[in-house]
Amino acid sequence: MKLTATNAKYFSIIAGGVAIAYAVNKFEGAISPLFMSMVLGLILVNAGGWSDKGKEAATFAAKRCLRIGVVLLGFQISIDKFIEVGPKGLLAVVVIVAGVFLGLRAAARKAGLTDSLSTLIAGGFAICGATAIAAISSTRKSEERDVSYAVAVVALCGTLSVFVIPILAHFFSLSDATSGAWIGAAVHDVGQVIATASIMGPEALDSAVIVKLTRVVLLIPLILFLSTQNSEKKSLRSATPTFVVAFVICALLVNALPLSDGTITVGKELSKIFLSIGLFGMGLGVKWASIKALGAKPLMVGLSAWVICGAFALGVIQVVGL
Question: What is d(CA 187, CA 309) in angstroms, rounded to the nearest whole number?
């Protein structure tokens, strides 16, 4: 992006929109700033508040800033939490993530969804909601409308979990530890996990965070898998985008170096900010008519997946004995 007054003006509008999204998240922690940023971008462009003169700024946000956010996702990878979950917990998380991603992607394709939309929704359910969708979209030729729809569906289902899972956990007489593990395995966004588990108590919150962060670690092999699968090139080195390699290196360095908690917190926040900017930019590229053209089928697939994947996660957790 050329540094012109026009580009600076429109990029400042994007930054202002992201600031509003963060303000909403501060007021209600269960609403992801990534999701809110995308929604505000959609509202702005469809209300006629975005000019074609801002196209270069929007593209820069949706491409460059999004990829910077993916690289900085390395600050969210905690090998310590990955180890802390233990062998049984690790087994449960791997089975749940693999089962949800592969099963949901296959089911969504069979239901008539495109490969792009199926993969985005499956990744969002399996790993970490809008964050995973943003990361996956940056490695594939995903249409902006698919990204927007996938983020919306996953955010809706994650929000429903905040209200539904605590009630079901009480109904099933689950222990706080088991409830937390279920929340960490079934709820998508980190903020939604914390909001849901906090209702259950401190033991549930600890269990939920450990399981959730273990799921986030599995974003690395998923991104590498999709990078190679989506390319006609045969070698891992030639098929993997540079920024994906940078993401893996960032994660390894963060876990290898004696970084302070403050530094890691700053890295995590910068990742969220850049991803939010990227999703705002993507939202600016989507007209409501293109989302409407997708119909209600992806939404119905998402809601059905929410129920089935939640039941699957609880079943695995109880079989393993968490």
Answer: 10
